[in-house]
Design brief:
The protein is α/β, with parallel strands linked by helices and 247 residues long. Helix content is 26%, strand content 23%. It contains five helices and ten strands. Strand 7, helix 2 (136-148) and strand 8 (157-160) form a beta-alpha-beta unit. 43% of the residues are buried.
Length: 247
C-alpha cells in the first residue's frame, strides 16, 4: 500500500468498513488519543483510522480528547483528514441517510480544550477560519461523489452542540434561525484544531435522524442505528474514491 498521509476520524463501527492491518500505540503532549490509530486499506491506498469515541464506543462528545486525536494523526504523517460524523437534520429537506459535505459551522459548545495555544510552550496563534472546510479534501469528496454516483449534498452549515443529550425543539429552532442545516456534537473543536496544526480537514456528515421538532415522530436510538448502518456502504464507496484523489 502507498504511504498513509490521510487520517479518517469516525465512529467505532466505521472501522468495520475496511481491512485493518496494524494499530499503533502512542501518546501525545496532550495525553492519549481516544483509541489506537489503525492502519487501514482503501482498495490499495493506505490511511489511518481513529475511533473518535474510543474502542469500544464509550467517550461522550464533551470528553473526547480532540487535541490528542489530531496530534496523534499528525505525528503519524497525516496532513489530510476526513471526519465521518452522524448528524441530525435541521433542514427538513434532508432525508435520513443523506450524505452532506458541509461548508460552514457554528460552535455552540463550551468548556472544551479548543486550541493548542493554551499558554504553554505552543506560541499564541489566531488561526484564520473563515471557510472551515475549504481545501483539497472537501473538493475530493465532491468530485468522488460525482465520479462514483454517490448522492452528496455539497453545502450545509454544521451546528456543534455540547451533548451528549439531544437538543430541545426550541434549540433546534434557534439553530435553524442561525442558518444551521445539520446538528452534531463533535464538529468542534475538531475542525479548528486541525486548521491550527495545518491539516486539510473535511467533514462528511451522515444524516441519522430529523432533529427535534423537525419531524412529527420522536427520535429513536434504534432507528438512528438502522439508518447509519444502511448508509455505510455509500460512505465506504465515497471514502475510497475520495482518498484515491488526494495527493
Amino acid at each position: 500500500m502507498t504511504s498513509a498521509n490521510v487520517g479518517i476520524i469516525g465512529g467505532t463501527g466505521a472501522l468495520d468498513l475496511f481491512d485493518a492491518y496494524e494499530s499503533t500505540a502512542l501518546t501525545t503532549p496532550f495525553g492519549p488519543p481516544s483509541a489506537r490509530p489503525v492502519r487501514i486499506d482503501l482498495d490499495g491506498r493506505a490511511a489511518w483510522f481513529l475511533a473518535r469515541h474510543g474502542r469500544p464506543h464509550r467517550i461522550p462528545p464533551h470528553r473526547v480528547n480532540y487535541r490528542a486525536n489530531l496530534h496523534a494523526l499528525r505525528t503519524l504523517g497525516c496532513t489530510r483528514v476526513i471526519a465521518v460524523s452522524a448528524v441530525g437534520a435541521v433542514d427538513p429537506a434532508l432525508d435520513n441517510g443523506a450524505l452532506v459535505a458541509v461548508d460552514q459551522l457554528i460552535d455552540y459548545t463550551w468548556g472544551r480544550a479548543h486550541t493548542f495555544s493554551d499558554g504553554g510552550s505552543a506560541p499564541l496563534r489566531h488561526v484564520e477560519f473563515e471557510k472551515p472546510y475549504d481545501g483539497a479534501v472537501r473538493r475530493a469528496l465532491i468530485e468522488a461523489a460525482s465520479e462514483s454516483s454517490v448522492p452528496l449534498v455539497t453545502e450545509g452549515c454544521y451546528g456543534a452542540t455540547q451533548g451528549p443529550r439531544l437538543e430541545t425543539a426550541a434549540e433546534i429552532a434557534r439553530l435553524a434561525r442561525d442558518g444551521c442545516t445539520v446538528v452534531g456534537m463533535t464538529g468542534m473543536p475538531e475542525a479548528g484544531l486541525a486548521r491550527e496544526i495545518g491539516m486539510d480537514y473535511a467533514n462528511l456528515c451522515v444524516v441519522a435522524n430529523a432533529a427535534a421538532g423537525v419531524a412529527d415522530t420522536p427520535i429513536s436510538e434504534e432507528e438512528i442505528h438502522r439508518v447509519l448502518a444502511s448508509a455505510m456502504e455509500r460512505v465506504r464507496r465515497l471514502l475510497v474514491a475520495a482518498v484515491a484523489r488526494i495527493d
